From TrEMBL:
Gene Ontology terms describing biological process: negative regulation of T cell activation; T cell receptor signaling pathway
InterPro entries (UniProt xref): Prot-tyrosine_phosphatase-like, PTN12/18/22, PTP_cat, Tyr_Pase_AS, Tyr_Pase_cat, Tyr_Pase_dom
UniProt name for this protein: protein-tyrosine-phosphatase
GO MF, one annotated term: non-membrane spanning protein tyrosine phosphatase activity
Family: Belongs to the protein-tyrosine phosphatase family. Non-receptor class 4 subfamily.
Keywords attached to this entry: Cytoplasm, Hydrolase, Phosphoprotein, Protein phosphatase
GO cellular component: cytoplasm; nucleus
Cellular compartment(s): Cytoplasm
Enzyme class: hydrolase
Length: 283
């Protein structure tokens, strides 16, 4: 074994050790947040809202949760399991949310409409390992419109021009090859997806909605990759920039962002790949 191979092996061991240490710190941080109630989740714990949470241990912090003020029926409330996540240039660059439940699809569209969201990124499948992970909230090409309360959702060709009373075009980007609690086989498609997303919406003037099933692991990785990509693209990476610190900061806005050590390790790999920002596609 030559000196280069020995050096690479030692470097890999050091990186693995550091990743284990950082994952341990993040786990302890999350435990402390819960035990000391540093970031309360009182609204999510209200009896009328409990059934709106897909997972009982993933509840949006009160201080950063997305509030719904658009009321469309007597049964509507102000609650949805979603949080705003800070971006490079603004406090509401992303909405991180869970995959809608059958009873919260209309709430999801109320949120999209109220906050004028143009881009939705879906990082899970409807079903994974035989379990329902997300209720379908979109219409497929050629299918009848999906009615969600007062909202009629239609999948239209890009060239179609519709002029009813109030129509908005929402672009959904669905990444279909990201296994839960694991990582994709290649990061290139994710970088390409982010390039396409930023082709349609280059700035943070309105939030991009990102969700998986819980709205934490895969959702957090997409937020973080886009955040890092924007720093690189604009040439403003801070000298002391740290992925670990960025995850820590995001975890003060939504619980369990970048949920597993596997996700964190994948993100570390992605950081190297994004040193050359992804090419923006053409519309």
């Amino acid at each position: 074994m030559d000196q280069r191979e020995i050096l690479l092996q030692n470097l890999e061991r050091a990186q693995s050790k550091k990743l284990n240490q950082e994952a341990f710190k993040l786990k302890n941080q999350s435990t402390k947040y819960r035990s000391d109630n540093i970031y309360p989740t009182a609204t999510a714990e209200c009896p009328e809202n409990v059934k709106k949470n897909r997972y009982k241990d993933i509840l949006p912090y009160d201080h950063s949760r997305v509030e719904l003020s658009l009321i469309t029926s007597d049964t509507d409330s102000h609650y949805i399991n979603a949080n705003f996540i800070k971006g490079v240039y603004g406090p509401r660059a992303y909405i991180a949310t869970q995959g809608p439940l059958p009873t919260t699809v209309t709430d999801f569209w109320r949120m999209i409409w109220e906050y004028e969201v143009m881009i939705v990124v879906m990082a899970c499948m409807e079903f994974e390992m035989g379990k329902k992970k997300c209720e379908r909230y979109w219409a497929e090409v050629g299918d009848p419109s999906l009615q969600c309360g007062p909202f009629s959702i239609t999948c239209c060709p890009a060239s179609t021009s519709l002029l009813p009373q109030a129509v908005r075009t929402i672009h959904q980007f669905h990444y279909q090859n990201w296994p839960d609690h694991d990582i994709p086989s290649s990061i290139d498609p994710i970088l390409e997806l982010i390039g396409e997303v930023r082709c349609y919406q280059p700035d943070d003037s309105i939030p991009i909605c990102i969700h998986c099933s819980a709205g934490c692991g895969r959702t957090g990785v997409v937020c973080a990759i886009d955040y890092t990509w924007k720093l690189l693209k604009d040439g403003i990476v801070p000298v002391n920039f740290s992925i670990f610190s960025l995850i820590q900061e995001m975890r003060t806005q939504r619980p369990s962002i970048v949920q597993t050590k596997v996700n964190a390790g994948y993100w570390n790999t992605t950081r190297t790949e994004t040193s050359a920002p992804p090419q923006e596609g053409s519309q």
